[in-house]
């Protein structure tokens, strides 16, 4: 980080750890945001100086009030602006004059309301840069720091949340209030809680870096409605995971595919913003959650328990049905039911009745009391084959729920292995659940949820142990030629390259392309076919035609010069009948590639994440089958291989049903070259290589068709 990012990090210290706070625009009217902000700071027992700024008021809540910020005699660490948007800029100007470098702007009425609001927001930014001010907001709920040394609730949340080690960042203020209520009911605490609103100045990225360094924060949660700078978000997540080992969990709203139909290429059509987000988040190590419940299911596991060192789990239950459900879920999530040692089996057989199941899952039987649960937990948790325990309880008439809850707590505190619980029900098991929550035991209503959580925690632990992969660098001797091709096309005002140009571009980057010629007559087509060697393919070349086969613009398997002459005429005639106004430059003649497996590789330049690489099953039905995977460039070799393995096409490439292995290494090389090209040439907007024909292992792959779109 550098420049303003470093300034933000410095000023964030005063936002979260101020010794004095000015509430700029405070009033005495209950039920208003200005009053609630002041009341929240008072009620939260802030350990610092509180300075209301309220023109026309001498005192508020027994505290001396000031007409202007500049009237305050003392130094002010943090300014909280609650004036209306129309005058917020004046308040920020006074903060600058006073020397306040850290500000939270609660006020609404900016970018979210239209053009006038955009102008007001820009005005705030200009003032902030003038005085080196960093601010959160506008249009936000505020910030909370539960650290007892600070105890700051500079928000209009109903009350201060409990202290904890979860940092929560949200673009939505309304969601924040719901999350706080949800967390209170579940006994979940926070270290820092931030609504950053329009993120006009300080964004989620700056806040993430702050939480990375925050000793009170162990887990980082985000709710985002838009990703402004996807590459910066990915880098922040990578830095956090590598440098601090803290997991980053995100809910990203907006899973629709609106606007995808306007894309020119297969890649553009397939790579919706949401699918790109999925790929980018996974690539960066971010865990994406579907909803608030899933977010906190994972958060409490990371917050309360150590990471599992393997995927081997033990299940203890007093009911067969829930045990089976938990087992099925564990297998679906890639977990392994641990095989108990002989010593564990002996202990279980001795402690449990003959009707009990001493194998995994352990069934202590419906009439089990706390002593059976204690014996089962002590036995399995000490087993070296077990690296996590799931305790399930259903309330029977003889079940001592509270005593069993205490046994779960004792076992979890005694041994350094993750323990998760599912006390199934609600009213009857409520007191036991409270015991678990108060003692930081992750509890889930459904035992199936435990498997999802355990699997996510295990995968994150694996990620921490992996060495980060570096993007592949490769020499591109033909790069100057590629730059010339793109520059000439742009100078001619073209939006995409003719195939002959596109092939030359790929050739410059070392792609396996076939030699070809552009023919402008039937005779030239025959001559070109003789030069490149039979069999050949003929394809129409027109700036007005993207999908050639749709208008009869392709002929395959042409074996003689005479066939080439006839094919030329047939192609031109077919195109003219389908699209009479199409401008035809000629027919491109190239040697036909031997039969192989058709795949697609492509690139789309995403507004937030930059160049996104695609791989999938190729051919004309690529959008029907949607067998594709994505990664953000630049790629490492293992990332490229993982893209291929993610698709169903990999089974075919790997020799399914006795077929010969295909040249996967050749695909990896093509993906890496495409990644390199997309980073080096930002003028390339979209690209499809479809199909890329993959031959048997060791025989390579060849570009059969390519589309390259340039410009805006």
Would you spell out the secondary-structure blueprint of this structure?
Blueprint: H1 4-16, E1 20-24, H2 33-43, E2 49-53, E3 59-60, E4 63-64, E5 78-81, H3 85-98, E6 102-105, H4 115-131, E7 134-136, E8 142-145, E9 152-155, E10 163-170, H5 173-186, E11 190-195, H6 204-213, E12 219-224, H7 230-244, E13 248-252, H8 266-270, H9 273-284, E14 287-288, H10 292-304, E15 312-317, H11 320-332, E16 336-337, H12 342-351, E17 362-363, H13 370-381, E18 389-393, H14 401-414, E19 419-423, H15 430-438, H16 447-465, H17 479-491, H18 499-508, E20 516-519, H19 522-532, E21 536-542, E22 554-558, H20 561-578, E23 584-591, E24 597-606, E25 610-617, H21 622-625, E26 628-632, H22 637-646, H23 649-653, H24 664-680, E27 684-694, E28 701-703, E29 706-710
Parallel strand pairs: 1-2, 1-5, 5-6, 6-7, 10-11, 10-12, 12-13, 13-14, 15-16, 15-17, 15-18, 18-19
Antiparallel strand pairs: 3-4, 8-9, 8-11, 20-23, 21-22, 21-23, 24-25, 24-27, 25-26, 27-28, 27-29
Helix pairs in contact: 1-6, 3-4, 6-7, 7-9, 10-16, 11-16, 12-13, 13-14, 14-15, 17-18, 19-20, 22-24
């Amino acid at each position: 980080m550098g420049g303003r990012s470093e300034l933000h990090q410095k000023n964030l210290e005063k936002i979260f750890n101020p010794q004095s706070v000015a509430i700029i625009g405070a009033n005495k009217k209950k039920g208003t945001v200005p009053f609630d902000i002041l009341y929240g700071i008072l009620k939260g027992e802030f350990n610092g100086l509180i300075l209301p700024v309220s023109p026309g008021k001498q005192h508020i809540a027994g505290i001396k009030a000031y007409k202007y910020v500049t009237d305050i005699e003392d130094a002010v660490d943090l300014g909280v602006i609650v004036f209306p948007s129309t005058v917020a800029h004046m308040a920020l100007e006074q903060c600058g004059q006073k020397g306040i470098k850290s500000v939270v702007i609660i006020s609404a009425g900016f970018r979210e309301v239209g053009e006038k609001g955009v102008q007001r927001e820009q005005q705030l930014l200009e003032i902030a840069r003038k005085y080196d001010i960093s601010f959160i907001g506008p249009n936000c709920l505020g910030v909370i720091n539960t650290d007892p040394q600070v105890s700051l609730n500079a928000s209009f949340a109903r009350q201060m949340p409990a202290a904890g080690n979860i940092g929560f960042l949200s673009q939505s203020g309304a969601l924040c209030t719901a999350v706080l209520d949800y967390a209170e009911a579940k006994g979940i605490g926070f270290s820092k809680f931030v609504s950053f609103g329009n993120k006009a100045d300080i964004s989620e990225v700056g806040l993430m870096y702050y939480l990375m360094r925050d000793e009170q924060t162990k887990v980082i949660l985000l709710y985002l409605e838009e990703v402004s700078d996807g590459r910066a978000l990915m880098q922040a997540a990578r830095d956090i995971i590598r440098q601090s080992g803290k997991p980053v969990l995100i809910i990203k709203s907006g899973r629709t595919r609106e606007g995808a139909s306007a894309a020119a290429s297969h890649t553009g059509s397939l790579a919706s913003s949401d699918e790109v987000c999925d790929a980018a988040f996974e690539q960066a190590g971010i865990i994406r959650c579907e909803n608030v419940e899933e977010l906190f299911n994972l958060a409490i596991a990371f917050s309360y328990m150590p990471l599992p060192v393997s995927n081997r789990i033990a299940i203890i239950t007093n009911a067969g049905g829930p045990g089976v459900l938990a087992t099925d879920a564990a297998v679906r999530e890639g977990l392994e039911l641990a095989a108990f040692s002989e010593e564990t089996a002996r202990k279980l057989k001795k402690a449990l009745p003959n009707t009990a199941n001493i194998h995994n899952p352990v069934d202590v039987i419906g009439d089990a009391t706390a002593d059976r649960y204690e014996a089962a937990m002590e036995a399995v948790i000490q087993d070296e084959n077990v690296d996590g325990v799931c305790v399930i309880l259903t309330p029977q008439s003889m079940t001592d729920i509270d005593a069993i809850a205490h046994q779960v707590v004792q076992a979890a505190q005694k041994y350094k292995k993750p323990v998760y619980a599912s006390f199934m029900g609600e009213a009857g098991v409520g007191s036991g659940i409270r015991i678990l929550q108060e003692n930081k035991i992750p509890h889930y209503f459904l035992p199936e949820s435990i498997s999802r959580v355990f699997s996510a925690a295990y995968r994150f632990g694996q990620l921490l142990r992996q060495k980060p992969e570096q993007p592949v660098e490769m020499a591109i001797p033909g790069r100057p030629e590629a730059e010339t091709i793109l520059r000439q096309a742009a100078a001619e005002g073209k939006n995409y390259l003719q195939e002959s140009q596109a092939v030359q571009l790929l050739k410059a980057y070392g792609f396996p392309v076939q030699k070809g010629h552009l023919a402008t007559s039937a005779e030239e087509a025959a001559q070109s076919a003789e030069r490149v060697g039979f069999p050949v393919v003929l394809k129409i070349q027109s700036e007005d035609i993207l999908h050639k086969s749709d208008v009869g613009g392709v002929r395959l398997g042409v074996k003689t010069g005479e066939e080439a002459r006839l094919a030329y005429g047939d192609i031109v005639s077919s195109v003219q009948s389908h699209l009479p106004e199409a401008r035809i430059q000629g027919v491109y003649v190239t040697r036909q590639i031997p039969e192989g497996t058709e795949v697609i590789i492509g690139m789309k330049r995403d507004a937030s994440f930059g160049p996104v690489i695609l791989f999938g099953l190729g051919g004309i039905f690529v959008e029907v089958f949607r067998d594709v995977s994505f990664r953000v460039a630049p790629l490492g070799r293992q990332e490229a291989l993982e893209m291929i393995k993610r698709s169903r096409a990999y089974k075919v490439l790997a020799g399914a049903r006795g077929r010969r292995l295909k040249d996967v290494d050749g695909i990896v090389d093509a993906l890496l070259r495409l990644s390199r090209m997309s980073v080096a040439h930002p003028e390339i907007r979209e690209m499809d290589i479809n199909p890329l024909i993959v031959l048997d292992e060791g025989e390579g792959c060849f570009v059969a068709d390519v589309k390259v779109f340039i410009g805006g």
